[in-house]
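User: Round two. Same drill as before: sequence, then structure, for each protein.

Assistant: Same drill it is. First protein:
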Amino acid sequence: MAAYTVEFVKSAEKEFLRLSAKVREKFIDALQLLSISPFSELLLVKKLKGAENVYRIRVGAYRLIYEIIGDRLVVLVIKVGHRREVYRRR
């Protein structure tokens, strides 16, 4: 079983770096699990409606939204933030 590579879009990387160190550390643990299995039941992954191959994981009040690019084995992090803001359109 091949491992997935985790990549960030530039805006998601900035959002990630703005998080507190405590929350960031929890997300790093979650991202390590995602790289092994992007559908891990341990993370309670949920598919987002209205988009193909887009999922979210939850860490407390924060969410990480990602897309799976299966042909390249990439987990692309699209957005990171507090739950009240992360689902809003740009």
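Second protein:
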Amino acid sequence: MIQSVCIYCASSADIDTPYVKDAEKLGTLLGQRSMHVINGGGSIGLMRAVSDATLKAGGTVTGIIPRFMVESGWCHEGLTALIRTETMHERKQMMAGLSDAAIALPGGYGTLEELLEIITWRQLGLYKKPVIILNTNSYYDPLLEMFSRATRENFIRAGHASLWQVAKTPEDVIAIFNC
């Protein structure tokens, strides 16, 4: 049973409306189900949108953030809990360890790195929980095509395509959880 989800997503403040709306919708759906969201604890972008919507809908949010980011003023002060770590590696390990599933919303370098790392951890058997890619506005289509190419050219085993699932909408994410 999935009760807590790790969410990877953008912390950019200049993101188009469809992405923000899906982040808010996902947060609302999770909050309505009293789910616990675990994220990077950021105060802007999709990270804030998910956090605020989850809290408003009755869920809880734990932000896990390295001290240097707190010292830079990048943390969301209104979360249920804020855990400070010493390193980014410690942050990512703790986020994964506290979750029953991982969801990647659109994002930049950090989100892509976290998504690929959690898929790799699944491949290695280090993370045995669902990984879901929320493909808002077909954002992840180029990456998914890269995965297909890597599989066709034998860089990825065909059986490893089941290491993640793709959802087109926040409602699809919830449907995956209810399977």
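The chain has seven helices and seven strands.

User: Perfect.
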